[in-house]
Specification:
alpha/beta; globular; 12 helices; six-stranded mixed beta sheet; about 270 residues
């Protein structure tokens, strides 16, 4: 089976006031890459500017939301000896900013794994609803990298410094129940009730006061994530340095070989 083309890798369905964006690489747990982030950012801007769209829903096809960046593509780039490129980071940052600064409520509906920059994508949403069996993971340190896509701000503003450090440094995963209790997500519901519950939340938003929603989300995001631009800039600078380091190459090699990496701090 060949890789899906660009239109098929991100599905868009608009029905009435609701626009649904679905990451559609279920066999690989919906990994993300540069082209997908460019499309996601463009879609958010287009839909946010459409007066007929009152809610945007983010989801993943199959049993997971997103496993994060496409490590197969990253490994190929490293093996080819290419210099670290900020294009994917910049595209991811554009997406995060578009969601947080936009006017339209965004709901993320999460199943299975939500990891790495996939977690950044989910947490950019205004309301995150997860199935009980879902879990959340900042896996960057496992391959010698730091969180990006706004994760250092999004996670910390939601759960505080201690839990953010635990997730980022130790790469500990949070169950959906623990994530809800910690304030990382809004709702954790039984798996078989996820679709119905999410539809209820989306339906309420779709008939609500759009102007009030826009002002409210912008005010709350400006308060909760006051230094978004600073966080994105720090992540960009740090990640580019780490992408060029030996530890990242070792992390990728260990990931591909399914072994524990040996990091040397360089």
């Amino acid at each position: 089976m060949t890789e899906l083309d660009e239109q098929e890798r991100i599905l868009v369905d608009i029905e009435g006031a609701v626009a649904r964006i679905t990451l559609n690489r279920p066999r690989q747990l919906n990994p993300l890459d540069l082209q997908m982030f460019v499309r996601l950012g463009d879609l958010i801007q287009q839909l946010d500017a459409d007066p007929d769209v009152r809610v945007i829903v983010l989801g993943g096809a199959g049993g997971s939301f997103s496993s994060g960046i496409d490590l197969r593509g990253a490994a190929a780039t490293v093996l080819a000896g290419a210099e670290p490129d900020a294009a994917t980071i910049d595209a991811a940052n554009f997406f995060t900013t578009a969601v947080l600064r936009g006017s339209t409520p965004v709901v993320a509906v999460v199943r299975g794994v939500t990891a790495g920059i996939g977690l950044s994508v989910a947490l950019a949403a205004d309301v995150v609803i997860a199935a009980e069996s879902a879990y959340f993971l900042l896996a960057f340190s496992r391959i010698g990298l730091m969180p990006d896509g706004g994760a250092t701000a999004l996670v910390t503003s939601s759960v505080g410094r201690a839990t953010a450090m635990r997730m980022a440094l130790l790469a500990d995963k949070l169950t959906a129940a623990d994530a809800a209790a910690a304030g990382l997500i809004a709702f954790c519901v039984p798996d078989d009730e996820l679709d119905g519950f999410a539809d209820g939340i989306v339906g309420r938003l779709a008939v609500g006061p759009t102007a009030a929603y826009a002002r409210t989300k912008q005010a709350i995001n400006a308060t909760a994530i006051a230094d978004l631009e600073g966080a994105l800039a720090r992540e960009r600078e740090g990640q580019l340095e780490l992408l060029a380091a030996d530890d990242f190459a070792e992390g990728l090699a260990a990931f591909a070989a399914k072994r524990t990496p040996t990091f040397r701090g360089r």
